[in-house]
Amino acid sequence: MSMLKVEDLHVHYGSIHAIKGISFDVNEGEIVTLIGANGAGKSTTLNTIAGLLKPTGGHIYFEDNSIIGVPTHKMVDKGIALCPEGRRIFLQLSVEDNLQMGAYTRPAGEIADSIADVYDRFPRLKERYKQVAGTLSGGEQQMLAMGRALMSKPKLMMLDEPSMGLAPILVQQIFDIITELNKAGTTILLVEQNAQMALSIADRAYVLETGHIALSGTGADLLKDESVKRAYLGG
Amino acid sequence: MLSYLINGISLGSVYAIIALGYTMVYGIAKMLNFAHGDVIMVGGYMAYITSSYLGLPYGVAILISIAVCTLLGIFIEKLAYKPLRSATSLAVLITAIGVSYFLQNAALLIWSSNPKAFPNMVNFGTLELGNIRITSASIITFLSCVVIMVALTLFTNKTKMGKAMKAVSEDKGAAQLMGINVNATISLTFAIGSGLAAIAGVLLCSSYPNLTPTTGSMPGIKAFTAAVFGGIGSIPGAMLGGIILGIIEILSKAYISTELSDAIVFAVLIVILIVKPTGLLGKKVTEKV
Predict the structure, then answer these.
(1) B218 — contact with chain A (CB < 8 Å)?
(2) A219: closest CA among A192, A196, A186?
(3) Contact B40/B223 with Cβ under 8 angstroms?
(4) Could you read off the pLDDT of A92-116 as tens digits, one per residue?
(5) Which residues of B touch A148 (CB under 8 A)?
(6) Could you tell me which residues come within 8 angstroms of residue A224 by beta carbon, excluding any fewer than 6 positions away?
(7) By the 8 A CB rule, do B219 and B262 touch?
(8) I need a labelling partner for B83 at 20 to 30 A (CA). Which of A45, A147, B75, B184 fits?
(9) Which chain A residues touch B160 with a CB distance below 8 Å?
(10) Which of B179, B182, B287 sits opposite A76 (nearest CB)?
(11) A77 touches chain B (CB under 8 A)
């Protein structure tokens, strides 16, 4: 079943036509990745799905309902969470308060269990639960951003460049966590510049080039594709 | 000397309550609401009309005044500032000055420029300690200020809604992604700030009973100064800044010159800003990329 369906989506920044009619879908239980160079429109696509940007044309359906025009703060209730580019955790709040904000729309009684779940997954966060988030390292901040997004118990989790600026060992760890989350039942839409890593865990992938979808296929197929290799995998 | 100090603390507490409104709105909406001082004036008039014309008891008059100002604050934000959410900060600033003049002139039209003699609504006698006399207005003003500051600090640090305010102040987009309704949060901030302005209006007029349509503008500017002085965005900073400012003002009136007291107050602000640009308790926000 298709959980998220994007049809002929157009997005403009003023007069700049950033997304030029892309269509793709994400099925329940999948990991789907959008890869491409800087400026291809990957983050724009995620931000538009989350309602932070308004599309100038096309359709977006989540579980068969159109979600265009739904305000961003209502997306969480529908089951969509975006872990934004650059993490954007609340640097002046403590780790635990950040997690609480992630569960903002959920009843108070359910929050403690979810926080315990996040701490199980990210023991580092538990050690630092009282610390102000601005004092965390880059890797810890990424874990907090992912933990915070998980707090809303999303059906679809969108991750924008989770590996950005992290040491290789941390990148591996973050991708392991993404795979685990997916196994636990969360559908994942992943945007990455690290095409190698993204394709290796993805069920399916789309290659974005300046606002178009240039290629699509299974993660394994695209890893072997000559044009993808040349353009994104450095070989 | 001591009685001057007490007067200074009392006046400073009024500045502090106004400054708390400035600093909260600035902290969350990142705008300087220059109409804030004029909401004080509206609060004063509301309490005056309901008590002097309608004959309601002071307590009820104060509550009505708070309610009207709270609604006025929400209304101003919806009508004047919300449409400018994505406009440049200069456009918002000019709009705020426009709202300020609008309120003053509306008051002029409704209540004329004749000063109204405001009754002392917090008069429960005078405390005498030796040869020092402390009015109940001074004591109540100071106590209200402390209670409000503590309540706001607890609200922003301990409650879910207060934390959401902090989240909105830091990153509106990320706050929305959490499911926080940013517009509602900003409305709430204006409501709290304007309700506080009403309290400040009643307390100010109880000590300085001369109510005119421009009553709020000078205290408004001084309180803004106090907020910057203490570190704009910081709740304890607003209180500290307000009280220090009140003391400086009264002491310079008493010992240096009545005419120069305002000049001295602003001179101190300039010196503080040169030495510590973020204000006394202002934090320098360092961003990690």
Answers:
(1) no
(2) A196
(3) no
(4) 999 999 999 999 999 988 899 999 9
(5) 178
(6) none
(7) no
(8) A45
(9) 100, 104, 108
(10) B179
(11) yes
The span from the CA of B96 to the CA of B227, in Å, is: 17
3-class state of residue A13 by DSSP:
strand
CA distance B43 to B215: 11
* Inter-chain CB proximity B167 and A93 less than 8 Å: yes
Q: Where are the alpha helices (DSSP H) in B77-111?
A: 89-111
ipTM: 0.90
Between β-strands A80-83 and B126-129, what pairing exists: parallel, antiparallel or unpaired? Answer: unpaired
Which two tokens mark A104? Answer: 């903002």
- Total number of residues shown for chain B: 289
B contacts of A93 (beta carbons < 8 Å): 163, 166-167, 170
On the question of pLDDT at B287 being above 60, the answer is no
Q: Taking phi first (over 0 means left), then psi (-120 to 50 degrees means alpha), and beta for anything else, what does residue B128 get?
A: beta
Residues ≥6 apart with Cβ < 8 Å to B120:
B137, B206, B207, B209
Q: How far is A130 from chain B (nearest CA, A)?
A: 13
Q: Which of B174, B182, B288 sits opposite A84 (nearest CB)?
A: B174
Cβ–Cβ of A88/B179 closer than 8 Å?
no
Band of pLDDT at residue A235, cut at 50, 70 and 90: low
Q: What is the pLDDT of residues A35-91, one digit of tens each?
A: 988 888 999 999 999 999 999 999 999 999 999 999 999 999 999 999 999 999 999
Phi, psi torsion values for A212, nearest 5 degrees: -115, 160
Task: Output the CA–CA distances (angstroms, integers) from residue B58 to A182, B62, B193, in the order listed.
Answer: 63, 6, 22
B171 vs A: CB within 8 A: yes
The answer to whether B174 faces chain A, any CB pair under 8 Å, is yes
**Euclidean distance between CA atoms A95 and B175, whole angstroms:** 15
Beta bridge partner(s), residue A11: A19
Contacts of residue A89 in chain B, CB cutoff 8 Å?
174
Identify from A74, A82, A92, A148 which residue to disrupt to test chain B contact, counting B C-beta atoms within 10 A and taking the largest count: A92
Domain boundaries, chain B: 2-275
The pLDDT score that the predictor gives to residue B285 is 55
- What are the backbone dihedrals phi and psi of residue B117, each rounded to the nearest 5 degrees, phi first? -85, 105
| CB within 8 Å of B263: residues ≥ 6 apart | none
**What are B49-105's pLDDT values in tens digits?**
999 889 899 999 999 999 999 999 999 999 999 999 888 889 999 999 999 999 999
Round to whole Å and give the CA distance between B246 and B118: 21
Q: Do A93 and B176 touch (CB under 8 A)?
A: no
Phi, psi (deg, nearest 5) at residue B200: -60, -40
Residues B218, B258 contacting (CB under 8 angstroms): no
Fold of the domain spanning B2-275: ABC transporter involved in vitamin B12 uptake, BtuC (1.10.3470)
B173–A101 C-beta distance less than 8 A: no
Q: In angstroms, rounded to a whole number, what is the distance separating the alpha carbons of residues A91 and A97?
A: 10
Q: What is the DSSP letter of B146?
A: H
B18: pLDDT strictly greater than 90: yes
